[in-house]
Write a structure and sequence with these properties.
heterotrimer, A: alpha/beta, Rossmann fold, four-stranded antiparallel β-sheet, 10 helices, 36% helix, B: mainly alpha, MetI-like fold, 14 helices, 80% helix
């Protein structure tokens, strides 16, 4: 479904060019769950954003290569055409739920506007679907909660809302960029379970970005390990866990506490 | 919420008292005798002066005079004008209405220009940003009475449109009234638009880098939806605050503008009273405008808390 | 990620400060040498009244035939003198009040700030008009009035940084080795608050130019026959239909003077990296 070839990403500022993703290629099949692991600065987040063609506000990024989504090169689309892909075909969940919701709109409005944009629903129809979605991601009393503002929700609840936003138009691919990093440990597991369940129910492909091998264990089938803008190793998750080849992968795996082992204090 | 309003209002009371003392004291700072000033330019005998003093209550101790005056103020009695002998309140109110209209129009114009230029400068960046900032620096250097003079020069000499400088009362012709105030409001509002523009620019830049704007883009929303619902709505809160706080500048500026365009507002009333040394009027105007400024600041605070749910939560 | 790299900003600040200082030099030249560089005596009349620009009178003449360029130069001296002295006084008063208030804190701070709040509540220009009207429009009264109305703004700018600076480590260290409180205030706290004060002073200078010229524009400036930019503009306005160009001279002079201080303030702000408020 998604075939990425020779992808490069270059930040351009003050005439200087900084290449942060170096000619990488990867594939994601329909319904497949794939992990991208690497430290911050490894280029994994930029890679995820490349698929959405989202540059950070105020900076300019030059993309290179090809991103074929169902045979269509996303990098060749106009910005206007790209807005029909974003949210509708490919959706994204971000790292910091505390900062990801618009503080002056109710939570419900922030799902409504997306449904009305992509699914050509009326306001009333959109709200009905919004309430369903909020229920689906495990928000209690969704009819009333839809009219609350983001500051009335906890971090974990906000991430649930953001997941509801992302899956609202039943996209083919869901990109989750460090979706649990900003959350408490107990909440992390809940959010991961929610993502797994929705993936199964909606038949989405999942691209899970994380720095933590512990997060992707049991979540994905295949893994790409990134370092310095390159993919240094890839393969089925079990093989990689059992016998990591690249020293960088070995180092990352060594940092994960295993169940049953106890670190000496 | 209600508690916050009450606290803010309660904090204003001592400042208002201080303001009233300054306004009252200003009149007593006069060189010479207040009674002489009250009698006008004609030289008068000592007995007449004594009578005037008794009439005005000037033979009583200062604190008592202040008390009497303050009691009057609280019941809406601002004293009598020396020049016309009529109650200041009756003379001031219609003029205050004219000034309020001019000030509000100027504020609106400043807001439109400021938000538009600030938004353009933050969104388009590059050359537009450079242009807007240069224009703002220049505009800041041109005092409103110079703007007004130049406007009168350009429109009066080269585009002598009919009636453009003749003030038309609202009751007579509402549309003509607004039209006649447009240019004065523009000269008054231009300087203030700079502050609004700079604040809009900063606020929009700040909001642009927020995660929720990235999320909005990731949702595939149209550019105009993102601009309206995500950028502007969030950036506007600080901008509204700033506009409210500019009221003092607008009120002060209206004095000059009204004089230049001969608009019968509070400013011109003050100016005339200053030339005539009509002290009760000066005192009343100082008190009234400071009160308006103070109360607006309180209103801005409250509006801020209402618009921005985050504030009341902290 | 979005802010420009520091060196570029620094460089731009330097350029602006340089331009501002050059403009300031022109203004200072006028203040110091005023009458001696003016081509004519500012009060010398001639039969050619309301002339446009000529070789003899570069900017033309006014309604009673006085040379406008000379009046502009000598008038600038008056305007700028009042401005500089008034702001110097406001700065001194603001420093004393702000340092005392911020440094001592507690009751002193509370009382000083409440009093300044009262002055702050008045629209500056309105208060200036009222005070000048009450005291009479002389140069001394103008200076005093302007100094009074701008003192609160100055004091606040000083107080803010003082409050945060006085808790810093090296201030604590000085106190612990027994350096006197006054010496601490002058030697350790003052240098830290210099940058915002410089920026604010430039802005207030620009505002003061506005207030001084506006007051004289209304006829509340220094009494005639001394020329003054504000009164010149008011006078030119009366004869605008006959000699429209006479408006330009004083208007440009006023704009030039305020622009000087705005350029300086913006340049200093970028150079010294002071926040916008």
């Amino acid at each position: 479904m998604l075939e990425v070839r020779d992808l490069t990403a270059e930040f351009i500022r003050e005439g200087e060019v900084l290449r942060v993703v170096q000619r990488i290629g990867f594939d994601i099949a329909a319904g497949e769950a794939v992990g991208f692991v690497g430290e911050s600065g490894s280029g994994k987040s930029v890679t995820a954003r490349a698929v959405m063609r989202l540059a950070p506000e105020g900076s300019s990024i030059r993309w290179g290569g090809r991103i074929l989504f169902k045979g269509q090169d996303l990098l060749a689309l106009s910005e206007r055409e790209m807005t029909d892909v974003r949210g509708r075909r490919i959706a994204m969940v971000f790292q910091d739920p505390m900062a990801s919701l618009n503080p002056v709109m109710t939570v419900g409005q922030q799902i409504d506007d997306m449904l009305m944009r992509h699914m050509s629903l009326s306001g009333a129809q959109a709200r009905k679907r919004t309430v369903e979605l909020l229920g689906l991601v495990g928000i209690r009393d969704p009819e009333h909660r839809a009219d609350d503002y983001p500051h009335q929700f906890s971090g974990g609840m906000r991430q649930r809302v953001l997941i509801a936003i992302a899956v609202s138009c039943e996209p083919d691919l869901l990109i989750a960029d460090e979706p649990t990093t900003a959350l408490d440990v107990t909440v992390q597991a809940q959010i991961l379970r929610l993502l797994m369940r929705l993936r199964r129910e909606l038949g989405m492909a999942l691209m899970l970005i994380t720095h933590d091998f512990g997060v992707i264990a049991g979540m994905v089938e295949r893994v790409y390990v990134m370092n310095n803008g390159e993919i240094v190793e890839s393969g089925a998750i079990d093989t990689l866990f059992a016998a990591p080849k690249h020293p960088y992968t070995q180092a990352l795996l060594a940092a994960v506490p295993r169940i049953g082992t106890r670190r000496s204090a | 919420m209600i508690r916050m309003v009450l606290v803010r209002l309660a904090l204003t009371i001592p400042i208002l008292l201080g303001v009233s003392i300054v306004a009252f004291g200003l009149m007593r700072m006069l060189p010479g005798d207040f009674a002489e000033a009250a009698a006008g330019t004609t030289s008068v005998s000592a007995e007449v002066l004594a009578t005037t003093r008794a009439q005005l209550g000037l033979d009583r101790p200062l604190w008592e005079q202040y008390g009497i005056w303050l009691k009057g103020v609280l019941t809406g009695d601002l004293g009598r004008s020396f020049a016309t002998k009529r109650p200041v309140t009756t003379e001031l109110l219609p003029r205050l209405a004219v000034t309020a209209e001019l000030t509000l129009m100027a504020g609106l114009i400043a807001m439109i220009i400021g938000v538009a230029t600030g938004l353009a400068s933050a969104r388009l960046r590059g050359r537009t940003d450079w242009l807007v900032r240069g224009w703002n620096s220049l505009l800041l250097a041109v005092p409103n009475f110079v703007v007004a003079t130049l406007i009168v020069l350009v429109f009066g000499l080269y585009f002598p449109m009919i009636g453009i400088f003749n003030y038309v009362p609202f009751a007579k012709d509402p549309i003509g009234n607004i039209a006649s105030l447009l240019l004065p409001a523009l000269s008054l509002g231009l300087t203030v638009s700079v502050t609004i523009s700079e604040n809009t620019r900063a606020a929009v830049l700040e909001v642009s880098s927020q995660d929720y704007v990235m999320v909005a883009r990731a949702k595939g929303l149209l550019a105009r939806t993102i601009l309206g619902n995500y950028l502007v709505r969030n950036a506007l809160t600080p901008v509204i605050t700033v506009t409210g706080l500019q009221l003092a500048a607008l009120l002060g500026g209206s004095i000059l503008i009204e004089t230049i365009f001969t608009i019968p507002g509070m400013g011109q009333y003050l100016f005339d009273s200053v030339t005539r040394r009509d002290y009760p009027v000066i005192q009343a105007i100082v008190l009234v405008s400071s009160t308006i400024v103070l109360l607006t600041n309180v209103l801005v605070d409250i509006a801020y808390a209402r618009v921005d749910a985050r504030v009341s939560y902290e | 990620m979005s802010d420009a790299p520091a060196p570029k900003k620094h460089h731009r600040g330097q350029t602006m400060v340089f331009i501002g200082l050059a403009m300031l030099a022109v203004l200072l030249l006028i203040v110091v040498f005023g009458p001696s560089i003016a081509p004519y005596s500012p009060s010398k009349t001639s039969p050619n009244s309301l002339d446009g620009p000529t070789a003899m009178h570069w900017l033309g003449t006014d309604s009673i035939g006085r040379d406008l360029l000379s009046r502009l130069i000598v008038g600038g001296r008056g305007t700028l003198f009042i401005t500089f002295v008034a702001v110097a006084l406001a700065l001194a008063a603001g420093l004393v009040l702000g340092l005392t208030s911020g440094y001592m804190g507690g009751k002193v701070d509370l009382i000083v700030m409440r009093i300044l709040d009262v002055i702050f509540a008045f629209p500056v220009f309105l208060l200036a008009i009222a005070v000048v009207a009450a005291l009479g429009p002389t140069v001394r009264n103008l200076i005093l009035t302007i100094a009074i109305v701008y003192t609160p703004a100055m004091a606040r700018v000083v107080r803010g940084p003082v409050l945060s600076v006085k808790r810093w480590d090296h201030v604590e260290a000085a106190r612990s080795v027994g350096v006197g409180e006054f010496a601490i205030a002058i030697r350790h706290v003052l240098p830290m608050v210099i940058s915002p004060i410089l920026v604010q002073t430039s802005l207030i200078l620009a505002n003061t130019i506005f207030t001084v010229t506006a007051l004289s524009f209304l006829g509340l400036g220094p009494p005639p026959p001394d020329p003054n930019w504000g009164s010149m503009l008011a006078e030119a306005r009366q004869f605008m239909e006959l000699a429209p160009l006479t408006v330009i001279g004083p208007a440009v002079a006023i704009i030039f003077a305020s622009l000087t201080f705005i350029v300086l303030a913006n340049g200093l702000r970028e150079l010294l990296d002071v926040g916008s408020r």
